[in-house]
Amino acid sequence: MSDPINQPSWKTLEALAAKNANQQMLDLFAADDARATRYSLAAAGVSLDYSKQRIDDDVRAALLSLADDQGVSEAREAMFAGRAINTSENRAAWHVALRAPHDAPMYDEVHEIRRAMAAFAEEVRSGSWRGFSGQPITDVLNIGIGGSDLGPRLICEALYEGNGPRPHFVANVDPADLDDTLAGLDPATTLVIVTSKSFGTAETLANARVARQWLVDAGAGEGDIAKHFVAVSTNAEAVSEFGIERMFGFWDWVGGRYSLWSAVGLSILLALGGEQFETLLAGAHTMDEHFRQAPLDENLPAMLALVGVWNNNFLGLKSHCVVPYAQRLASLPSFLQQLEMESNGKSVTREGKPATVSTVPTIWGSVGTNAQHAYFQMLHQGDLAVDMDFVLPLSGPKAAGDARERERIANCIAQAEALMCGRDSDALRSELEAQGLEGEALEHRLAARRFDGNRPSNMLVLETLDAHHVGALIAAYEHKVFVQGIIWNVNSFDQWGVELGKTMAGQIVSELGEDAPSATHDGSTAALVARVRRAWGR
Ligand code: F6P
After folding, report:
1. Which of 32, 155, 215, 489 is the most exposed place for a label (fewest CB within 10 A)?
2. Protein residue with least CA distance to atom 6, ligand 1
């Protein structure tokens, strides 16, 4: 492992960034008729067009050298082989094993649990699993947070078609989340899945306790709890201490944010059925095989990663906006926030030294076209430098006749074009002159309506919005994050940065209770604690 900043390829990239400081993407297109094709890749029904990036052949070659210098291919082999690449916790990060086909010799236990999940889901879906009043299950409530929530939530939102129990997700410890959800559910026909890798996450356990009481209040006896409560965890002891009999397990080598493919996906299986879950895994596996085998210059996840490195480390674009043009993918930006920022939001190297290069940018975004009417003004004319991923699922031929579908797709294509092309000021001047504007008024209007353009974006197109393509898309992003972690020389698979706040919250929780505050805080924190206590009459 090596500090990227010392690689000759890093220096080459710095020199290229300086040399190309004024490079215009439109000039790159003018000089190369085949640019759109030469800067596009496809795998598993997902395509990436990165031609609207400020990248030329020299930059691409230098980025590929950087990937070689940093040992991306070797690291990739280590990940697929299940080696302990999570060095700070001495664990593998082997999520690819979770979507290997049934005959793969990777890990018998994976398939054993998957079979148990499928059998359970079938019982519930067929109606043979009954609740305490003898009725079949109509609703499934997943209680979990972070990786125990975001992945299954995204998949269910993307793919649920009403063909199975309705999926619900509660993550927030704010009582409004669970209380509002329970208000719409019938305890007699609800199955609760408590999903927590550690089974020690305070928010999840607090919500699980309330949900359990809700069942008891509705008439479920102690013996009935098992009909309505299952757990997904790696911590069998804590699950049984909590009083849940049935647990679907997974392993410490499955990171929370990489876990939707494991038993954490139980809500997906229940809502969508076994076939859809298998298709999701198969889509991810197809992307895995592409990532594992394709040379880096033809490798979609690797190129996605390298484009991000170029923008972040060499063009100084520290803000990355993801806009899916599909209502069903509205949760993709939140999912990616955890995947990318919890994985690579680090400033220490794998050797425990301070990182010398900038790591993950801010990841944010929301669904298009809504986003256009919120912050696209800034993306087009603001001074914050942002690079973008547009995610565009195509739809079946029938949709060609739906005016809204044409709007959805046209808007996505147009926004990427506008960001790159900007507006030609000569044409605008003539337009305004034709409207009778002149002098200072004309100049003022011209300045306000000026779009410089040259703002970079990726376009990721999915052939259709279905289980296969969504699986492939998420796997592509997972591998992007992996490659960036290798290049930045950080461990993408730990998350020590979330620990301190958790410990402090535990302390403050007790200070908001009956007893007088005991900890020594800074003045601001002490005042806040005192203020809450006053509000509660303590
Ligand atoms: O707070 C961070 C985190 O540990 C995430 O990494 C994880 O996905 C989430 O909390 C939930 O953890 P658990 O599944 O153990 O409840």
Report:
1. 32
2. 256
Tell me if 355 sits within 8 A of 489, measured CB to CB.
Answer: yes
Report the separation in Å between the CA atom of 444 and the middle of ligand 1, taken as the mean of its atom positions: 52
User: 373 catalytic, yes or no?
Assistant: yes
Closest ligand 1 atom number to CA of residue 195: 14
Sheet holding 190-195, edge to edge: 166-170, 139-143, 190-195, 229-233, 246-249
Q: How far is CA 235 from CA 198, 203, 417, in A?
A: 6, 16, 50
Q: Is residue 1 within 8 Å of 350, Cβ to Cβ?
A: yes
Cα–Cα distance for residue pair 121/270, rounded to 1 Å: 5
- Mapped onto helix, strand or coil, the DSSP state of residue 186 is coil
Task: Give the residue, by CA position, lying nearest to ligand 1 atom 1.
Answer: 498
The response to whether residue 202 sits with its C-beta less than 6 Å from ligand 1 reads: no
- Residue 123 is a catalytic residue: no
Ligand 1 mean position, distance from CA 435 (Å): 59
Which atom of ligand 1 is nearest to 264's Cα?
A: 14
Render each residue's pLDDT in the chain as its tens digit; 538 residues. 579 999 999 999 999 999 999 999 999 999 999 999 999 999 999 999 999 999 999 999 999 999 999 999 999 999 999 999 999 999 999 999 999 987 776 668 898 999 999 999 999 999 999 999 999 999 999 999 999 999 999 999 999 999 999 999 999 999 999 999 999 999 999 999 999 999 999 999 999 999 999 999 999 888 899 999 999 999 999 999 999 999 999 999 999 999 999 999 999 999 999 999 999 999 999 999 999 999 999 999 999 999 999 999 999 999 999 999 999 999 999 999 999 999 999 999 999 999 999 999 999 999 999 999 999 999 999 999 899 999 999 987 778 789 999 999 999 999 999 999 998 888 889 999 999 998 999 989 888 988 889 999 999 999 999 999 999 999 999 999 999 999 999 999 999 898 888 888 888 999 998 777 777 899 999 999 999 999 999 8
* Cα 140 from Cα 165, distance rounded (Å): 6
Residue 203 known to be catalytic = no
Ligand 1 touching residue 198 (CB < 6 A) = yes
Tell me which of 161, 222, 237, 373 is the catalytic residue.
Answer: 373
Tokens read off for 186: 């019938």
Given a contact cutoff of 8 angstroms between Cβ atoms, the answer to whether 248 and 117 are in contact is: yes
Pocket lining: 495 vs ligand 1, CB cutoff 6 Å:
yes
From the CA of 94, how far away is ligand 1's center (Å)?
17
